[in-house]
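Predict structure. Chain length: 197.
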Amino acid sequence: MNAGGSTFKSSPYYLSQVNGSKIPNPIWKDFDKEHPVDKYNIITKNCSDPWDSQQVAEIRRHYYAMLAEVDQLVGQVVKAIPKSKRASTVIMFSSDHGDLAMEHRQYYKMSLYEGSARVPLIFSGEPFRQNVMDSAPASLIDIYPTLLELANLHPNMILDGISLISSTPPPPNRPIISQYHAEHMNSSAFMIYELVL
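Prediction complete.
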């Protein structure tokens, strides 16, 4: 296995929290049938070796162990908030990219596949509804206007994003735009995501 510097590792404790038998392995195309951009990504990410299913399963188990660790750390933050302040505290959780976890024969980011481009965006606290998951597209550029509205601040300019408070739920047909122009790409990549109802 030639995973280079991007091999994911996690602590034995969090690995013990993950039932690897419940994590499905992705199904890959033959390398020759991959899109040229994906071939380039696979090679430059050192993923072109003939991986066996156990190696892929182990990488994915480490990825899920890291998620278990993040879950516990977020829980510690929530528990550290005094009960008298919890009702008036808003918690936001997000990420800048996913890690693919060997989907499309790749790990790390640098891809506009869902496993890399789609990330969690979670708000907890007033004025957000409890236990509600919305499928309408949102973007990381929505975080800034949302935080401004939470702080009762009004920008004196037009912002690219929208507040997820006053626009709850976000418009379902609103397109989300993403682009990538850096390493592990042999061309620029652009994505327009729109929920089709």
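Summary: Residues 1-6 have pLDDT under 50 and may be disordered.
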